[in-house]
Automatic annotation (TrEMBL):
Keywords: ATP-binding, Cytoplasm, DNA-binding, Isomerase, Magnesium, Metal-binding, Nucleotide-binding, Topoisomerase. A type II topoisomerase that negatively supercoils closed circular double-stranded (ds) DNA in an ATP-dependent manner to modulate DNA topology and maintain chromosomes in an underwound state. Negative supercoiling favors strand separation, and DNA replication, transcription, recombination and repair, all of which involve strand separation. Also able to catalyze the interconversion of other topological isomers of dsDNA rings, including catenanes and knotted rings. Type II topoisomerases break and join 2 DNA strands simultaneously in an ATP-dependent manner. This is DNA gyrase subunit B. It catalyses: ATP-dependent breakage, passage and rejoining of double-stranded DNA. It comes from the Bacteria.
Length: 695
């Protein structure tokens, strides 16, 4: 995983100080609104600095940048449709029906504004005054970066009654901007082909794009977003997203695998002008859109956005929402006598348990913390959100008394459970208690204390644990065997989870503590490797562990510390020639190579799964090749386990990451939640994708 390089505050300030202040009429979007800040030269030298990585994440970031230009046009009220087409040869076409990028000559540079936008870093309508009221902010990244990192790009602009064209190669214009036709339409078509010399992969993931487009459609209500996959000849796929309900529809989508506690989804969409006269000219107004609904769950599901950019670390809009939610619910409960005088107030934790909420704000000049825009820092946004949400929630509770009683009742039960479990939580979570406990006896620790070099293998069962302990590198590899399946934390509160012996042993082994006492700097191992059998039980244990890490240690996943080991499914041997095989396709391919002839895969499958293979643990010989299928890690001796799964020089592992938090939430809720129907549907839908299934 490549780390994003950061630009010093001084350099950012220098760049922002050179932006022009251009007076223009409201809604005007011409060359005068395009402000030039910096050239394009550094992009190809350090692509990771601008798009995060040159892997799959960076590849998709290229597409998001182009799509965001259409989204910004929609937020400004000029575009109603965006169309994305995946073409052969890894090309992508993005079309919007907005105003079209200006093509008139830019006075500061002396060339067409289109060429400025496409070839100059930090040039666009988002930096000056008048081009956009609201946008994704001062990205430092844009379509010019996409151009620089594409072997080919084409810009077609529909405006001023003409169709304008310019083509580029690795960011360099091939000809001047020129008219190539006439039209009555307006809009922009950007076609680009990522550079194979820059990116590790050029294959866009259709599911990743769908999830992103769905989210953007929810956040920009009323916009129609279409995607067409035309990469494979004769195999055409298309989807269309349009949500008139905005984030209210988003909350409904997020909760479709859960049981709602009340019928009506709270929703408000209001633009508020700032009262502070000094701030008003600078910041203008803030649009606040909030939706929430409580479900029959213990966790909080919350998504915050500023100008359609997700803020995973929250910010001022989240602080404003949480403050207003707790204050209004306590006030309502007191006034209705639902909370007696002797009762203590509901805490913020009580009011957020089981809530699914989405908050989206639109602000003229967003102040993000860091290049990743993980946190919103505008203090005026907190005031705006508190004001809008307080008024809206008070009205909602008055107009929906049945929903109000249900919400207060759920919060009250959460409060009772919290108080009843307080002594359990305090006995385990108070500062230093886990640090003071001795390491679990089942843990075979390593001798090194350098966390950057050490690994923790979480192994299924004592048998596999024994082989792993004998076969490991004792200096850097620790082994923690787990007995059976751990508690499903998706259906349990933290206090219940902490008294589970297997989970408690795992927390102590990690060394970070948990909950409010979590400290990632105390992590004892920088590789935490889940190693389970390649069967249904192993997959279930792996999913339980991933749920545990995702819900209570998401920082470990985001930091790239969680891995999944890939033990082999087969051992192929012909004389002294030995191969470890990880899939059926690889097995059949290797057998053909070893015997120098084509085989019938069906016959091989019968040999592997027949009674003889089941009794002996070894398949029939195929032209002198012995095929051994491993049902579990415990069947391997220590040397084999080391050679195939634990030796850093030869092993194969998957690093776990979170590409899309809402999608991950949905999958975990579906697989591990209490609702059977969605889980059954998911299994039926994806059953055809399962190549090997042991029952």
């Amino acid at each position: 995983m490549l780390k994003k390089k950061t630009i010093s505050k001084e350099k950012v300030a220098d760049r922002l100080n050179v932006k022009q202040k251009i007076a223009s009429s409201e809604g005007e979007y011409k060359a005068a609104q395009i402000t030039v800040l910096e050239g394009l030269d550094p992009v190809r030298k350090r692509p990771g600095m601008y798009i995060g990585s040159t892997g799959l994440t960076g590849l998709h970031h290229m597409l998001w940048e182009v799509i965001d230009n259409g989204i910004d046009e929609a937020m400004a009220g000029y575009a109603t449709e965006i169309r994305i087409t995946l073409l052969p040869d890894n090309m992508v076409e993005v079309t919007d029906n907005g105003r079209g990028i200006p093509v008139d000559k830019h006075k500061q540079v002396g060339v067409s504004a289109l060429e400025v936008v496409m070839t100059k870093l930090h040039a666009g309508g988002k930096f000056g005054q008048g081009g956009y009221k609201v946008s994704g902010g001062l990205h430092g990244v844009g379509v010019s970066v996409v151009n620089a990192l594409s072997v080919y790009m084409k810009a077609e602009i529909y405006r001023d009654g003409k169709i304008w064209l310019q083509e580029y190669a690795k960011g360099k214009p091939q000809k001047k901007v020129r008219p190539v036709g006439v039209t009555k339409k307006t809009g922009t078509i950007i076609t680009f082909q990522p550079d194979a010399s820059i990116f590790e992969t050029l294959e866009f993931n259709f599911e990743t794009i769908l999830n992103h487009l769905r989210q953007q459609a929810y956040l920009t209500k009323g916009i129609k977003i279409q995607i067409f996959d035309e990469r494979t000849k004769g195999n055409f796929t298309s989807y269309e997203f349009y949500f008139e309900g905005g984030i209210k529809s988003y909350v409904s989508h997020l909760n479709h695998n859960n049981i709602p506690k009340h019928e009506n989804i709270f929703y408000i969409d209001r633009t508020i002008k700032l009262d502070n006269k000094e701030d008003a000219p600078k910041h203008g107004a803030v649009q606040v859109e909030i939706a929430f609904q409580y479900v029959d769950e213990y966790k909080e599901c919350f998504y915050a956005f500023a100008n359609n950019i997700i803020n995973p670390d929250g910010g001022m809009h989240v602080i404003g929402f949480r403050s207003a939610l707790t204050r209004v619910l306590n006030s309502y409960a007191r006034n209705r006598g639902l909370l007696k005088e002797k009762d203590e107030n509901l805490s913020g934790e009580d009011t957020r348990e089981g809530i699914t909420a989405v908050i989206s704000v639109k602000v003229a000049e967003p102040q993000f913390e860091g290049q990743t825009k993980a946190k919103l820092g505008n203090p005026e946004v907190r005031t705006a959100v508190e004001t809008v949400f307080t008024e809206g929630l008070e009205i909602f509770l008055e107009e929906n008394p049945r929903d109000a009683e249900t919400i207060i009742g759920k919060c009250f039960l959460s409060s009772q459970a919290r108080r009843a479990a307080r002594h359990v939580r305090e006995s385990i979570l108070r500062k230093g208690v886990l640090d003071g406990l001795t390491l679990p006896g089942k843990l075979a620790d390593c001798s090194s204390r350098n966390a950057e070099k050490t690994e923790l293998y979480i192994v299924e069962g004592d048998s596999a644990g024994g082989s792993a302990k004998q076969g490991r590198d004792r200096a850097t590899q620790a082994i923690l065997p787990l007995r059976g399946k751990i508690l499903n934390v998706e259906r349990a509160r933290l206090d219940k989870m902490l008294v589970n012996s297997e989970i408690k042993a795992l927390i102590i082994a990690l060394g970070t503590n948990i909950g409010e006492q979590f400290d990632i700097s105390k992590l004892r191992y920088h590789k935490i490797i889940i190693m389970t059998d390649a069967d249904v039980d192993g997959a279930h244990i792996r999913t339980l562990l991933l749920t545990f890490f995702y819900r209570y240690f998401p920082e470990l996943i985001r930091s790239g510390y969680i891995y999944i080991a890939q033990p082999p499914l087969y051992k192929l041997q012909k004389g002294k020639e030995i191969h470890w095989v990880y899939s059926d396709e690889e097995k059949n391919r290797l057998i053909e190579k070893m015997i120098g002839a084509k085989i019938d895969p069906k016959k091989i499958e019968l040999a592997d799964n027949g009674e003889m293979a089941e009794e002996r643990g070894i398949g029939e010989k195929v032209a002198g090749v012995n095929i051994q299928r491993y049902k579990g890690l415990g069947e391997m001796n220590p040397d084999q386990l080391w050679e195939t799964t634990m030796d850093p020089a030869q092993r194969s592992m998957w690093r776990v990451n979170i590409e899309e938090a809402s999608t991950a939430d949905e999958v975990f809720e579906m697989l591990m939640g209490s609702e059977v129907a969605p889980r059954k549907k998911f299994i039926q839908t994806h059953a055809k994708d399962v190549k090997n299934l042991d029952v």
